[in-house]
């Protein structure tokens, strides 16, 4: 089973994000692309590559409510989603760079998490950082190829 996602390009500035849960419920929200698209795709890339089920998309499947989960970036929920949110925030900046030193990035995130007395998750490895970068490269290529009015569908696999 999976959570079905759809990113529809409305203009250079706006897109629609829609999801459909296994039970058939879901929602569609129009958003400002510059602020939200990269963040949502970075979550998708990280959570997919790391096999995370208790972060943004896993929680979206279980309880729904994009806007409720987006307020505070999920950090207030604690647990896996809080750490994932911090990692995604750091990843967004790192992925904008031409080259990424995956070893140094993982070490920097480890130090950052220590500031919050949080343990570095086992899944945060240099190999994962590189696979997330590649997944993001593919996703952004697909998005650029999506015409206005077109939709980029994604599936988020869940147990």
Structural topology:
Blueprint: E1 2-9, E2 14-20, E3 26-32, H1 33-50, H2 56-63, H3 66-70, H4 79-95, H5 102-115, H6 126-145, E4 151-157
Antiparallel strand pairs: 1-2, 1-4, 2-3
Helix pairs in contact: 1-4, 1-6, 5-6
Give your account of this protein's structure.
The chain is of the alpha+beta class and 159 residues long. It is built from six helices and four strands.
Compose a concise summary of this entry.
With 159 residues, the chain is of the alpha+beta class. It has helices at residues 33-50, 56-63, 66-70, 79-95, 102-115, 126-145, and strands at residues 2-9, 14-20, 26-32, 151-157.
Give a quick account of the main beta sheet: strands, pairing sense, barrel closure: 4 strands, antiparallel
Give a count of the beta strands, DSSP E runs of length 2 or more.
4
Shape: globular
* Average pLDDT metric: 91
- Output the number of helix runs: 6
Give Rg in angstroms. Answer: 15 Å
Q: Estimate the strand proportion.
A: 15-25%
Q: Order the strands across the largest sheet as they lie in space.
A: 3-2-1-4
Q: What is the terminal separation in angstroms? A: 7 Å
Which sequence of SSEs, written as H and E, runs from N to C?
EEEHHHHHHE
Overall SS class: alpha+beta
The portion of residues assigned to helices is 40-55%
Low-confidence stretches: none
């Amino acid at each position: 089973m999976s959570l079905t996602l759809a990113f529809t390009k409305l203009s250079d500035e706006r897109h629609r994000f829609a999801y459909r849960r296994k039970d058939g419920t879901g929602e569609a929200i129009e958003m400002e692309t510059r602020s939200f698209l990269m963040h949502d795709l970075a979550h998708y890339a990280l959570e997919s590559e790391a096999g995370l089920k208790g972060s943004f998309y896993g929680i979206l499947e279980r309880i729904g409510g994009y806007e409720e989960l987006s307020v505070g970036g999920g950090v207030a929920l604690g647990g896996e989603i809080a750490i994932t949110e911090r990692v995604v925030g750091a990843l967004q900046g790192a992925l904008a760079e031409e080259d990424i030193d995956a070893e140094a990035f993982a070490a920097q995130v480890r130090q950052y998490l220590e500031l919050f007395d949080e343990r570095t998750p086992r899944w945060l490895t240099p190999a994962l950082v590189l696979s997330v970068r590649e997944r993001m490269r593919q996703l952004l290529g697909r998005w650029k190829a999506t015409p206005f009015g077109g939709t980029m569908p994604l599936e988020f696999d869940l147990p």
